[in-house]
Amino acid sequence: MKSRALLISLALTFGCKVSQNPGYSKSEVFLEDGVASWYGPGFHGKTTANGEKFDTNKPTAAHRTLPFGTMIRVANSTNGKSVVVRINDRGPYSKNRIIDLSQAAAKEIDMIEQGTAMVSLYLLGQEKEEIKVDDLKKPSFTVQIGSFSDQGEAFQKASEFEDGWIKKAKVKGKFVYRVYLGKFTSAEAARKRKNSFSTSTGFVKQIEN
Question: Collapsing DSSP states into helix, strand and coil, what is residue 83?
């Protein structure tokens, strides 16, 4: 039921439609078309936005808003090749790109040499391993350092921090883009992160898992 609710929620959020692509499940949901890029060796071993170590040899990807653990099929519009990736990072921060693929994923759809490719994204669901009962019982905390009406400014701010991430929210009928730093299991850990840099606007905020 949770997986189905997620599909419905994301479909409403993104204005999605059910994919009619032959050879794939009818539950597959089209998300968006746009430019994909890839990132590789320079980031290998670094911490991703969801806290795991980035492995350029695994099929993962960075997306600005999709929940961590979401499974996406990325289809290269030029050659028809596709790859299934798991979202574990935030980005890309270039305004004209919609997803950043690991090197392994980029190889699967033959876009290494070009660096970028026009793609279509299809929602497949979430990994069950990403959601644990124990995790749902624990509160999470983050540090909010800004709120922007301009999406590009928000992504630029988030890119200044290794653990920066964005969440879109609707306030008084208008969309804003809130910039956060990290996710922590205690308010004290979040306060330590806040105190690690100089800002007069940052504050600790409890969030949903």
Answer: strand
Which of the residues in the chain have pLDDT under 50? 1-26, 126-138, 209
| Gyration radius of the chain over CA positions | 17
Sign of the dihedral through C-alpha 182, 187, 188, 191: positive
CA separation for the pair 150, 98 (Å, rounded) = 16
Selection from 193, 128, 140 nearest residue 167 by Cα? 140
Q: Which two tokens stand for residue 33?
A: 């078309």
**Tokens describing residue 62:** 């960075």
The burial of 142, by beta-carbon neighbours within 10 Å (0-12 exposed, 13-18 middle, 19 or more buried), is given as: buried
CA dihedral 3, 86, 183, 38 (to 10 degrees): -150
Helix, strand and coil in the chain, % to nearest 5: 20, 40, 40
CB under 8 Å to 20, separation ≥6 — which residues? Answer: 26
Quick: pLDDT tens for 42-70.
Answer: 889 888 888 889 999 999 999 887 888 88
60-62 and 82-89 strand pairing: parallel
Rounded to whole angstroms, how far apart are CA atoms 131 and 53? 18
Neighbouring residues of 8: CB distance < 8 A, sequence distance ≥ 6: none
Measured CA to CA, the distance from residue 11 to residue 68 in angstroms comes to 17
